[in-house]
Amino acid sequence: MTTESGLDIYKKLYGLDHLRALAIIVVFFYHYFIVTHGQPKWLPDVASFGWAGVDLFFVLSGFLISSQIFSQIKQEQPISFKIFFIKRFFRIVPAFLVTVGLYLCFPFFREREALPPLWKVLTFTQNIGLDVKDFGTFSHAWSLCVEEHFYLFFPLVLIFLQRFKLFAKSYWLLLVLFLFGFGIRLYCYNYLYLPKFEDDDSWMYWYKYIYYPTYSRLDGLLVGVSLACIYVFLPKFYTKVSQYANQFILLSLCILTGAYFLCEDQKTFSASIFGFPLVALGFGLIVLGAISPKSFLYKWNSKTTTFIANLSFAIYLTHKGIIRLTHKLLDQFKLESHLMLIICMITCILAAYLLHLIIEKPFMNLRSIIIKRKLKPTANIAAADIRTVN
Fold first, then answer.
1. Phi and psi (nearest 5°) for 315?
2. pTM
3. How many CA atoms lie within 13 A of 172 on its CB side?
4. Number of other residues whose CB lies within 10 A of the CB of residue 267
5. DSSP-assigned states of every residue in 330-345
6. From CA 225, how far away is CA 171, in angstroms rounded?
């Protein structure tokens, strides 16, 4: 399928593989910095902004998921929530449950002392009210919770808009949700975080009320959805702006540099209210550049970044546990910090590849079989395989 401008919506976009690989690498460095000791001296400066890698994943997820569904809407096809749910279930849940099983059955795999309540983990609600101090194990799954909430409500909202012929006005909803993010963070900062500011554990309340909840972290997803709207529904406009793809990438780097300095202390008022949307905007521009045929990211086909991108979800799920386990096994040898970091990178990739071969790949094949059986022969549903993390 192509848009009016001839853009192939389901063409393999290698530029996005580069960004997915970048996102998981910076997240890895960030968590390595948090859960280990004896790190290379350069790591804190490099890794301190690594939390933003999750926001890049949000932008990618918003764009990739939305562009598939929007293409169906453009063709006036009904959105099948059942098919959408099946795709997301088999992509995410099997690998997720295996990882949860590792955390439950093998305490030495845990990077912290205690897991959140199991019911919150299994219902993807652990990011709401998460006490990262006392239940910090597997805390990185908070972002997967955000994405699961998006996967649940986004198609339902679109089905509603499609059924009642309101889709043409849906940009107002994007604007309202974007402004809602500012408002809810402002409220949480002034009325939930500041009253705890003098507490010794005030940092924990910042994460609990501002960083983790879905309602305050919608910016990246909304930017991704907005990009998908332009990509699918405004092909002529997209074709014009895509001529400046490399300039957009340069601009994104400038914005992200500004966000780096703004968020040097994440818990300030400015960083808490404006940091997330600024980061989302920066990553949105780099995604816009990556999907544009004129950009160097679009033209660069790298087997290495594609390999890492394909493993990104498995790496995300397991890397903190594998880092911790690798250190426990090798600390006695007093290895040099750079060598330990490289070994941890290798063990994380190997563990992710094993999870991919044993769990992800078979369930993805099963997913394809189930979807083929459920689809009518005439159905024209996106064949692209969206691989996101969260």
1. -65, -45
2. 0.92
3. 5
4. 17
5. HGGG---HHHHHHHHH
6. 10
Contact call for residues 281 and 251 (beta carbons, < 8 A): no
Residue entry with tokens 């332009």: 230
Confirm if 317 and 355 have CB atoms less than 8 A apart: yes
- Tens-place pLDDT, residues 22-46: 999 999 999 999 999 888 999 998 8
How many Cβ atoms are within 10 Å of 378's Cβ, its own excluded?
A: 5
- b/e sequence 82-93, b meaning 16+ C-beta within 10 Å: ebbeebbebbbe
Cα–Cα distance between 176 and 162 in angstroms, integer?
A: 19
SS3 assignment, position 305: helix
Q: For 115-145, write each residue's pLDDT tens digit.
A: 899 999 999 999 999 999 889 899 999 999 9
Q: Give residue 384's pLDDT.
A: 40
Burial status of residue 161 (CB atoms within 10 A of its CB: 0-12, 13-18, 19 or more): middle
